[in-house]
Amino acid sequence: MSSERLPDRYFDDLYAGAADPWGFQDRWYERRKRALTTALLPRPRYRYGFEPGCSLGVLTEALAGRCDQLLATDVSPAALAAARERLAGQDHVRFRCWALGDPWPDGPFDLVVLSEVLYYLRAPLLRRVLHQAAAALEPGGTLLAVHWRHPVTDYPLGGDEVHAELGRTPGLVGTARYQDLDVLAECFLRTPPDPVWVATAEGLV
Nearest 5°: CA angle at 53, between 163 and 84? Predict the structure, then answer.
C-alpha cells in the first residue's frame, strides 16, 4: 500500500469497530455539514458527479438528487456495501472500490466533491490529486471541498493545509466559502471560462 496516504487497513479497522465510525447518520454536526455542503453548490443539477470517499453513502444520497449520473468510490468494502444498500434502486448512482492516487476515472465530470478525504494524503500526493481533479473537470465545472479543521494525530495533513493547497491549484478559482471553528467548506470552478455565479446565470444581474 502506498505510503503517500493512510493505508486501506486504517479504514477497514474503523468499520470493523463501528458501523458508522464518524456518526454520519446521527450527529447534528454531520447533518448540518451536509446542508452547508449542498447549499454551496451553484447549480441545481449536474450531469456527471464524482464523490471519492463516499463512506456509507449519506452525502451520496443527497448528491444523487442533484446529479443525472453519480460515481461514488471508497477504499472500504464494508463502507461500499452499506452505501449500495442505502441507495438501492437508484440506478444512476454507481459504486467502485477506488482510492485517491489510483488512475483517475474517465470523465469529464461537471462536479467533483472531496468531502473529508484530502487530509488522508501526504502533501506530494495531494498536489497530484488536485491537478488530476482540475483536469477531470469540464470547463466551468464545480469542485466542492469540505474538511474538519481540528488536528487529528493520525492524519498526514490538516484541513486548513488542504484548502491552502486547493487555493494554489492551477485551473481552479474559489467562488464561495464557509468557515467556522470546526469545518471549512469551499466551492471552486474550473477555468477558463471565467466563473459565472448563480444570480448572473439566472439573468438577475
Answer: 150
Cα gap 200→106, rounded to integer Å: 31
Q: Kindly list the domain boundaries of the chain, sorted by start residue.
A: 8-201
Largest CA distance in the chain: 52
The per-residue pLDDT for range 102-139, each reduced to its tens digit, is 999 999 999 999 999 999 999 999 999 999 999 999 99
Strand partners, 44: none
Q: What ranges in the chain are assigned the alpha helix state H?
A: 8-17, 28-39, 58-64, 77-86, 123-136, 159-167, 198-201
Per-residue pLDDT reduced to its tens digit, 61-83: 999 999 999 999 999 999 999 99
Please tell me the total number of residues recorded for the chain in this structure.
205
Evaluate if residue 2 carries a pLDDT over 70.
no
Q: Are 109 and 137 in contact (CB under 8 A)?
A: yes
Q: Enter the CATH code of domain 8-201.
A: 3.40.50.150
**Backbone Cα Rg of the chain:** 16
C-alpha–C-alpha distance, residues 52 and 71, integer Å? 8
Q: Pick 87 or 197 by higher pLDDT.
A: 87
What is the pTM for the complete model shown? 0.95
Residue 125: CB atoms within 10 Å: 18
